[in-house]
Amino acid sequence: MDISDISGIQLATSPLPRTAIDYNSSFEESPAKRVKYSHELTKSFDEKLSQTVTLVLRNNEEVIVDRSLLSHYSTYFRVLFSNEFRDSKSSIHRIRLISATDLHLLLTIPRASEQGIKPNINVQKAVELLEPAAYLQIGIALDYISDVICANLSHEISFSDIIKIFRLALLYYTPLAVRVWRAMIRQFQTMFSTNVYLTLKENELMGLLTDKHLNLKSEDEGTVIVNWIKHNSPLQSDKIVQFAQKNFARRPQPDATKYEVIRNRQPIGAIVSFGGWASRGVAQKIEVFNTRCDRWQSCNFDYDVPNIRRAYNGIEIVDDKLVVFGGFNGFQHYQTTVVFDLATKNWKNGANMHDKRCYVTAAKVKDSHGRQLIYACGGMNGVSRLKTAEIYDYHSDQWTEIANMSHLRSDGAVVTVDNKVVAVGGFDGRNIHFGGEIYDPIVNEWHALSSNMRTRRTGCTAVSIMNHVCMVIGGFNGNKRLDTAEIYDIREGLWHPVSVMHNARSNFSACPMDYSIYVAGGFDGQSTTKESERLDLRTRKWQALPDLAEAKSALRMVSLVDHPFLDELFNISEDDDIVTRW
């Protein structure tokens, strides 16, 4: 089956295909090759019944399958064989819906899953298997097929085909339809720019527009409806015209004060700022950058998480866990670790680090088993600068010391490049570094980078760009705060200058998201600043952004994209009135 050959209207309106399942045993046998399936199950049936059953499939292919095997994996056959229907005891069943090859694959998926093996099937085959898997109710196969389809929604499947798969899933497997709907919500801005949304049905478009998670700019909402009505006949648009007339308005929320919209929406991604050093000590506000309106918003963090508000600390997200470690609160240098579960909203104290670490820098790297490990490097213990480094494994809740760096480094930058940890810049108590080093986990050694940065930097920040490139931004060179930045390609081994920021700053935070690098806070040489800006990596230009709510330095920022915890941070209520009326 070719997805592109299926009419969207046909998928949404046509009845279920005829499968012509015939349990009458009086039929002419086909000379087709018979396939014998081995059985491993112990479920017993009536002793008078044969332990195998002959299935006559598409093109009169015949296969002999163990009854217990079918019953174990298929709810359809389990119900059929365990009841007193006339057809339950028949030794021959006809199912025209499926071929012998596809049946073999559908039975292979759950058997392989039990052994921890993932069968290699492509998206096209997964879509083809959806209907027979749903008809035979092979739950494990349906879940695996759904995973294959959803894993490729963003790059291998066109937007028009995503709509068709959604309609197909509505017929056969609702959990998949929910997941595809979520993908349509995430990618709707692109569907709008490519005009694919014009093929949506009226009720589908209205359903998307009433969803608070829809990824669509406020200024484009009116255009979506106007263009859809122009593209479709007036007879199809009466309902959506009434819908727009009753619901378009300016809403009292940041993302809708300039444009009329259907409802307030939640951004698909956000930058979250934690802690930092403000005028009265550690900053108490947790701020969120709303990418829909390009504005910082204070959020209500209603969970009692002791010691999560710090400055000069490390912070990373690993497996939906916010891990906060090291830092300073104005009175003590932290050695402790706090872990906050973004899914359950619970927190716990993690294992202590081997050293107290203020001015610590950190990065996360995947090991050979696919686990994400946090590297904490350098810093200051309250007495002296450090060259030590250690790794945190969340699963075992354990910090493990690794080889010392070549130099004492506090206030440097640590970044992941090509899944390797690179430490650059920093201060050793006397000198500001402009060199860097890279950690080799195989031999447990640090090796100097092939070249030095173009300027000395401490209080700088680094971010990864793609896999092989990192950017080091701002800092202090011993004379002044810096507005410069430079990039390093690990394959080339050289540093290159990039566009300068609007503001010089040190001890700030930077975070990449959506082809941009966001920068906020820090010290500009005269005072702590609340100014923020971002670099568009496509245009290579810095753009000034609205200020933070309070000036602060030594803050830490993380990005969350399409994450359920954004519901907690923005707390945008469901507009039940719109949903129930339409």
Automatic annotation (TrEMBL):
Residues 51-119 form the BTB domain. Signal peptide: none annotated. PROSITE patterns: BTB. Pathway: Protein modification; protein ubiquitination. Pfam families: BACK, BTB, Kelch_1, Kelch_KLHDC2_KLHL20_DRC7. Keywords: Kelch repeat, Repeat, Ubl conjugation pathway. It comes from the Eukaryota. This is BTB domain-containing protein. It comes from Caenorhabditis remanei.
